[in-house]
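Please, structure for the following, as tokens.
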Amino acid sequence: MTFSRKFIIAVLFALAPVTARAETVIKFATLAPEGSTWMRVMKEFQTAVETQTAGRVKFKTYPGGVQGDENDVLRKIRLGQLHGGGFTGVGIGQVAPSLRVLDAPFLFHSSDEIDHITKTYDAQFRKSLADGGYVLLGWADVGFVYLMSNTPIRAPQDLHHVKMWIWEGDPVAEAAFKYMQVSPVPLSVTDVLTSLQTGLIDGVYGSPLAIVAMQWYSKMKYMFGLPITNASGAALVSKKAFDQLSPQDQKTLLDLGQKYFTEKLSTLSRQDNTTSIATLKKEKIVVTDPASKDAAAQFENMGIQSRKSLCGKMYSAELLSGIEKTLADYRAAKDKKKPAHAK
């Protein structure tokens, strides 16, 4: 064998391990169904990642809950079978319990308030997720959450006889329903539709978009028009998988995550929620309002009590009071900017 041929073979063998490591496939699961806005944006994100990393990083997605609910996905990530996912507050809370403050009942009044808090507390929230072993690619706001039932809800006492579903293992929802004096039926999110069909439950909660996408509305008659909370959402990837990427590719993922999840997906999801409310009304779902100002105040007070009850369990009293103060200041500043006739 000539020297030149030996040299070429040696170079090829030396490069082989580098080539093997060059392509990283991140397996990513979500409950969002195929064809949904979530998945359309996810595919745009995938394409952009693959293009901007020259194929070094690719995403393989598993939509529609085919990998199980969020607890199943987190378990599979721990086992190395998956590397990331799109999560609601329930899954986020398993990673960083303090972030469940974003789902605290009756905390937010508008989407811009949510954006203000996630921006203000960005570094703190990212650190909490990193401590739990995950990297935030971007926020993916699920939207405001409404109650649905087969009997009209206008005051807290109307809930007492509803067989209300609760997402199994969700302490925030448990606290909220406790103060509403509701004894819910704990189930995995993937079991809700079947349980509605069998009559095991006759009440659910969720964002309008989720309720339409999951077809839960087909078994419901009423929606309470006062949202009880906001449902946070995020695209997360395990820190272990993220740390295997080059600094350049890490930055690409974070930049594209901000663009496609925090900015684009959250905006589109909010638009979809508005459209979904219109869809529910077209499907003859009756939207009810609080019976009185007193009834609305009762719900608000129950929310205050339930979120305070989670201090020291999910998040600190300092974090909750800090966010409440930040929101109060934000609302006051916003109110000052309003024309006198609009106040």
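The first helix runs from residue 3 to 22. Residues 6-21 have pLDDT under 50 and may be disordered.
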